[in-house]
Amino acid sequence: MSGLHRSSSGAPHKNGLPPQELLDDLCSRFVLNVPKEDLQSFERILFLVEYAHWFYEDNSVEKNPSLKSFTLKEFTSLLFNSCDVLRPYVAHIDDIFKDFTSYKVRVPVTGSIILDETYERCLLVKGWKGSSWSFPRGKKSKDEEDDACAIREVLEETGFDVSKLLIKDEYIEAIFGQQRVRLYIIAGVKDDTAFAPLTKKEISEIAWHRLDELQPASDDVISRGMTGLKLYMVAPFLASLKSWISSHQPPLAPKPDMPLKGICVWKAKNSSIGNSSTIITESQPTKPEPDVHPPDTGPGRSFRNFRFDIPSILQAMEAGFSS
User: Structural domains in the chain?
Assistant: First the structure.
C-alpha cells in the first residue's frame, strides 16, 4: 500500500483509490477526534480504524461506486499510510493487525436465542459474507453489561427489541477458545413478527428454523445440521436449549401443519435464496455511526505502551488547515 499514489482532488483516482481529502476526513472523524483514553493502545486504535472502514464501505463506496472496496487489512494499511499521525508505524502494521485480530477473538460476545410461541422454532441470522447461520449476537463494548449488549446487538441485526422479554438469569453460555459467548433466551415471540436489520451489509437473511431440523446429523456437532445448514455457532447451544425447553411450558401448543423447512422472514435483495418457503425483502438503512468505545481489557501485546504525541498532532493539524 505504501507505493500507492493518490489524487489530491476530491475525485477518486482512476484505479478507484479514495482521494486524500476523504482519507483525511475519515482519519479526523474516527481517529483524531476521540477521547484520549481511546488512543492508549493499538488494539483500541484498530477498533476506531474498523469503524472508519465500515463508514467508508457503507457510505462512501455506496454513494460513489467508482471507489474501490477494501478488506479491513487493506483499509488499515491505506489509512496508516495516509494519516500523518499513523504513518510512522507503517513498518509495524503487520504485527499491529495480527495483535488486533488475536485480541478481537477474546472479547466477550452476547446475544439472544429467540423462540416462537410453540418453542419449536428459533430465529437465526446469516452473515453478509459466507453461508453460516447463527443466533443474533455480537461483541461487547467498553463498560457494557451483558444484557445491554444482547439487546443492542439483536436490535441491530434483526430490528427487534428484546428488552421487555429478556430475563437476566435465563441464558446459555459457552466458551469458544478464549471467548465467552452468552445467549439470553427470549421465549414466546410471535412468528409473524416483522424483522429487518438496522445495520447495512452485516446480515443477508433472517429466518425461523425448526429446532428438530437443527440437531446434528452426526457426531460433528459444530458443523452442519440435518438440512445441511452450517451451524458452527448454533449446534453447541442446542442440548442446553432443549433442556431449558423441556422444563418450560410454551404459550401455544405445537403446530403440526407448520412447514418443515425454514421460513425466511427477511432477505437482502442481492443475496441467494437458500432453503426457505417465504421471502420478504426490505431495503436496509445505513449502519449508524458507532457511539460506544471499544473494549478496554485484554492481555498485553506489542506496542501496548504506545502513546500519541498529542502536541505534534495538533501542530500537524494546524499546519494542514493553514496551508
Answer: 1-104 (1.10.10.1050), 107-267 (3.90.79.10)
DSSP 277: S
The cell numbers describing 154, all together, are 439483536
**Dihedral of alpha carbons 137, 234, 134, 264, sign:** negative
Q: Which grid cell is 124?
A: 437465526
Position 73: which residue type?
K
Cα separation, 128 vs 180, in Å, equals: 23
Do 92 and 303 touch, CB atoms closer than 8 A?
A: yes
| Three-state SS at 174 | strand
- Across the 323 residues of the chain, what is the mean pLDDT of every consecutive 10-residue run? 41 75 93 79 89 88 90 95 92 93 91 97 91 92 93 97 97 92 97 93 93 67 56 88 96 83 86 39 38 45 50 60 53
- Output the pTM of the full model: 0.66
- Beta bridge partners, 115, equal 122
CB-based burial label for 10 (10 Å; 0-12, 13-18, 19+): exposed
Q: How far apart are CA 275 and CA 79, in angstroms?
A: 40
Handedness of CA 60, 270, 233, 221 (dihedral sign): negative
